[in-house]
Amino acid sequence: MKKSFLFLMMFLVVALAGNFNQDFDITWGDGRAKILENGQLLTLSLDKTSGSGFRSKNQYLFGKIDLKIKLVPGNSAGTVTTYYLSSIGSSHDEIDFEFLGNLSGDPYILHTNVFTQGKGNREQQFYLWFDPTKDFHTYSILWNPQSIIFSVDGTPIRQFKNLEASGIPYPKNQPMWIYSSLWNADDWATRGGLVKTDWSKAPFIASYRNYNAQACVWSSTSSSSCSSNNSTENSWLSESLDSTGQSRIKWVQSNYMIYNYCTDTKRFPQGFPPECSLN
Ligand SMILES: *[C@@H]1O[C@H](CO)[C@@H](O)[C@H](O)[C@H]1NC(C)=O
Ligand SMILES: *[C@@H]1O[C@H](CO)[C@@H](O)[C@H](O)[C@H]1NC(C)=O
Ligand SMILES: *[C@@H]1O[C@H](CO)[C@@H](O)[C@H](O)[C@H]1NC(C)=O
């Protein structure tokens, strides 16, 4: 506890609301990514030549990030829309949402993963309980010193707890950027690569709105504390799943989860990773 407080002293907490111009840079795509409506809307586009992507201007160490996304409509097979937090380097930490497209009317897959100190292999995949291409839906990452919680429209779908006490590394020392991209992955994305991208349907477009974050901005020089005096503003830093959250996760996992590394006996014949019995 003392130790994490020391870390927190180095950061400045900010509440960011909604302006893509202020908080993000378009990082690639040669004009295919666009910030519109005075920073309220961002669109990514993919065609045969290139995809596109953006990244936060700041790095964060802990945060609660909400992003509304409307995924590529129609035939999106072969496309992948990503939204993730990541640090850099070979022992990086990463928290991933990836949306794997599909033929019209067939379900997207929401793919999730958590990397700690360069090691991932913690995939869980879900179908969604709505059509993610019809409207904007909120995809959230809560990352605080106790746990990482992935949520969809406020419903938690996955939790990765801080289990350092059991010897499992937890992301808490490396600041991360927020990234998003739209790219072609038809070698693996749709039905394991069986369905290819139909380029006659290009450009493929995903849209983003209502970016909202409470987060600790990384700054090597700032002496500001991460915590403000306002306990409401800081509540996310100690937020955890309550009993309603626990039962929502169970509901999602029993009805919509289609892959869980923690039950993949073929992949882990010698026994599951240690966090599987503890999360
Ligand atoms: C696409 O649809 C097929 C058939 O319903 C399904 O098996 C698959 O999981 C869906 N999603 C992806 C990304 O392949
Ligand atoms: C918090 O409150 C204390 C005492 O009321 C005050 O001295 C301090 O400046 C406040 N800090 C912030 C970040 O508002
Ligand atoms: C604390 O923060 C919340 C949310 O930003 C705000 O609504 C409230 O007015 C703040 N309270 C004080 C005492 O500043």
Verbal overview:
The protein has 279 residues and is mainly beta. The protein has one domain (20-263): Sandwich (Jelly Rolls). It is built from four helices and 16 strands. The chain has helices at residues 2-8, 20-23, 231-234, 243-255; strands at 12-17, 24-28, 34-36, 41-46, 52-56, 60-70, 79-86, 94-100, 109-115, 124-126, 137-143, 147-152, 155-161, 177-184, 204-217, 257-260. The strands form two sheets. Strands 1, 3, 4, 6, 11, 12, 13 and 15 form an eight-stranded antiparallel sheet that branches. An eight-stranded antiparallel sheet has the order 2-5-14-7-8-9-10-16. β7 (79-86) and β8 form a beta hairpin. The relative contact order is 0.24. One 2-acetamido-2-deoxy-beta-D-glucopyranose binds at residues 100, 102, 106-107, 109, 189-191. The site of one 2-acetamido-2-deoxy-beta-D-glucopyranose (NAG) has 8 residues, from loops.
